[in-house]
Amino acid sequence: MKNQIEKLHKVSYFIGALAHGAEKNLGRGSMSFGFLAGKKFGIEAVRDAEKTDDPVKAVEILKNALAKKGIWWDFEPFQGEKNSLVEEVGEEKRMRLVFHTCMVRNALFRYAHEQKMLLCYMSHGVFAGAMEMVMPNTKVKLDILHAGPNACLKEMIWEVAK
Asked: What is the pLDDT of residues 41-98, one digit of tens each?
């Protein structure tokens, strides 16, 4: 087990270094290519998953579909002080999510690199692409409300395509 953890730490450090280099070389544009790369991965990862219009059910389907691909990502809806999980703001719908365990956050901490940069945007792309497959006819984005050492609070925002 110790040997596996050491290997994981080395890979995490390497990924953090790659992201840091891309950010320095490409600047803010690195976020865009990271998001698009992640989105393509997310679409492919859940292509055969069950479909639904229910965002709470979609979160569970997404977690399970990723787990079947060997990707364990611990996130769930977060109500907090709000009256309901889903909030409607004009044409958009919103739902907050808490991400307890995140391989990106772990890699960034191992490399001692800041959050809310390339790797976070890449994971947002994975989430958005996968969620758009699970909830057909939607356009999904993910905003960071809080990025912390133990969990991140994010808001999924989606619109139903017309």
From this structure: 899 989 999 999 999 999 999 999 988 888 788 899 998 887 889 998 888 999 999 9
- Kindly report whether the global pTM for this prediction surpasses the value 0.85: no
**How far is 132 from 25, CA to CA, in rounded Å?**
31
How many whole angstroms separate alpha carbon 98 and alpha carbon 48? 25
Domains of the chain: 2-160 (3.30.1380.20)
Q: Which two tokens stand for residue 125?
A: 């792309």
Residue 127 neighbours by CB under 8 Å, 6+ apart:
38, 42, 62, 140, 142, 156
Tens-place pLDDT, residues 82-111: 788 999 888 899 999 998 876 665 665 565
Closest CA to 106 of 21, 8, 19: 8
Contacts of 119 (CB under 8 A, 6+ apart): 15, 16, 19, 34, 104, 107, 108
